[in-house]
From TrEMBL, chain A:
Main location: mitochondrion
Span list, region Disordered: 155-174
Gene of this entry: immp2l
Protein name: Mitochondrial inner membrane protease subunit 2
Active site: S41, K89
Automatic annotation (TrEMBL), chain B:
Keywords, comma-separated and alphabetical: Hydrolase, Membrane, Mitochondrion, Mitochondrion inner membrane, Protease
A GO cellular component entry from the record: mitochondrial inner membrane peptidase complex
Primary gene name: immp1l
EC top class, as a word: hydrolase
Protein name per its UniProtKB record: Mitochondrial inner membrane protease subunit
Organism encoding this protein: Gouania willdenowi (Blunt-snouted clingfish)
Domain of life: Eukaryota
Positions of the catalytic residues: S73, K116
Amino acid sequence: MAQQAGRRYLRAFVSGFFVAVPVTVTVLDRLAYVARVEGVSMQPSLNPEGGSEDDVVLLDRWSVRNFQVQRGDVVSVLSPRNPQQKIIKRVIGLEGDFIRTLSYKNRYVRIPDGHLWIEGDHHGHSLDSNNFGPVSMGLLHGRASHIIWPPNRWQRMKPSLPPNRGPLETEDDD
Amino acid sequence: MTAEIVAKQFLEAVRSKDLLWWLSGRSEHTLVDMFRNVFGKTLGILGYTIQYGCIAHCAFEYIGEFVVLSGPSMEPTIVNHDIVFSERLSRHLCKIQKGDIVIAKSPFDPNMNICKRVIGLEGDKVCTSVLSDLLKTHTYVPKGHVWLEGDNFRNSTDSRNYGPIPYALIRGRVCLKLWPPQSFGTLSESPTKAIIKSQSGSNSD
């Protein structure tokens, strides 16, 4: 009797396992992903204190399935330098924009097709497009939609461009 | 007399109520049963759809997928409309090697995929000159990037045009050719001089 019950329990466990794992993986891949933000590169939007407690953000993966982002969105991108690592930055320019760079080799850059210009909010302490240039849209991983961890900072993240950053307007008007 | 009428009404009420209750109880029962049946079946079908959908997603995302290739850039190794199996494991484990044929997202259009051969990994010295150039130019592949070239040197848009691409754009390694049947088999061996040269060069190092 006990053996039978144990076998039934094991079978239920295995079948539950085969349901739970694929469903979880699919949800994390397609719908939403939760990630901890490390480092100071996005101060003051994320990790405002720095060091003591890391923010946890909800990454919306469904909204970037067609690679559609706006300027000012905070996005997570697979690092072009290290494929195992993800970086979280703010989108400054989309394809076709002209950008005044901060410390890139060229002063002005036109973003090629299918690329993004991303920068951390904390200039000078961020490894971003000013180091490695425009990143390919195919590296896009998710869009940070909410800060969920320190509960007192729970909020929806709105797209906002930092002052005097963004594409040069004259090119759009012509 | 009044008592008689009251008693009659009461009895009728009881009878009718009884009947109503019996009727309602019965119909409710069958309705609930039907509803529960339909609801349960729908829920079951939905659950199975989600479950198998998720399993399919995991299989395609982490094990491998079947791809129909089009375009001339990999001739003669792969010709137009061949069907190949591309496995995803070696990409997730970072086991892509020189000489592998990979499928990657195009750096300029994320909805398009390209199929090329890996010529150089990070830190390798590669020849960047297009065939028409007289002078040979060389460059080093930067960190986290790979150098891709098509086997069809004359008719291929690849890293010689747009430079190295990030490793993370690679989607999978083509390991098996399934269609047409006469050319069924693995694709590991092959190709043009450049790879043989670079592979022998890497072996001798």
